[in-house]
């Protein structure tokens, strides 16, 4: 059993927001997209993020104020946790009381969203071999076919995969952030 998640990462809350927005997208894919863009170095103001979230959710209605606040909290918490120690960073996925098939499909959608978000950000520098490996792994995970049957082995395998995706996301984030040196003029040589 996983420890309790902060309220901002409770998957069911986003299902409610998506229902209020008459959205046909996936909360897991939305979060994956957000993390992919953040990992690639993009930062959004809240208004831009809310517009993007509505588009990604394939919403036909605007989020209500509570939904907007939750989406902003997701953005802020995701960036803070990615930039922090990483220990608290989590993926927005259904909890472990849900069937394995639903959780596996959500993990695949999360990885699909990450790849889509990361791929939209132009890169000036070549990606490291480690980052290229992670992106290839995420592409494979995005094709995941969930198991119909819940079993201890399936649960264990799934938890290992979630932990890998979580840690790999942190790796991509740390590898792809613009360095402070890139923002400063070169030092004069004497």
**Count of separate structural domains:** 1
Count every beta strand, where a strand is a DSSP E run of 2 or more residues.
0
CATH topology: Four Helix Bundle (Hemerythrin (Met), subunit A)
What would CATH call the homologous superfamily?
YgfB uncharacterised protein family PF03695
CATH hierarchy: architecture: Up-down Bundle
What spatial form do the alpha-carbon principal axes imply? Answer: globular
Biggest sheet character: none
Average pLDDT for all residues: 88
CA-to-CA gap between the ends?
60 Å
Cα-atom radius of gyration: 17 Å
Instruction: Provide the structure class.
Output: mainly alpha
Helix content: 55-70%
Quickly name the level 1 CATH class. Answer: Mainly Alpha
In short:
The chain has 190 residues and is mainly α. Helix content is 59%, strand content 0%. α1 (11-20) runs antiparallel to α4 (65-83).
Question: Which key terms come to mind for this protein?
Answer:
190 residues; mainly alpha; globular; Four Helix Bundle (Hemerythrin (Met), subunit A); disordered C terminus
